TrEMBL record:
Coiled coil, from the record: none
All residue ranges annotated as the AAA domain in the record: 7-76
Entry protein name: MinD/ParA/CobQ/CobA-like protein
Record-linked SUPFAM superfamilies: P-loop containing nucleoside triphosphate hydrolases
Amino acid sequence: MGDVGHALAEFVREVAPDFDYVVLDSPPDVSNLPTWSCLMAAEHVLVPIVPETFSAQAIAGVDRTLATAQAANRKLRFLGYVVNLRKTISTYHEANEERLRAIHGDRVLNTVLTNLTAFAEAQGLRKSVAEYAPNSAADKLTREFCDEVLVRIERQAQARKAA
């Protein structure tokens, strides 16, 4: 991947001192250059999983890619899988989420990002959910998700210090 694969990592190192966190969002295909670049630049990785059969089956491939990325980027830590775009009235999604949790346990975040209209509307208006729909269910869910991610980051930092 050479210089192109590490350009994002260099950029993140340059801007990181100006921010509390730098969040990189990549395409879902873990085998492409933009996603690989994000993995080389990141310290933590979350994997969104739509609770459907093919998404759940893709986890083995994602895990292999993450292992390869962690060999190349020793700072990269897996934070967990986040159930995303879950339909609240779908027994199919409910069953797949239960199966995912049974297999992967605490590797799956407790917070579930449900398929709320406010997420799509805010994105379409290029606003955060907090700006578009403050105090909405989507805003509260986003805050819950962020809180859980920060707790996981802190736990990993404490575990590294203790080791």
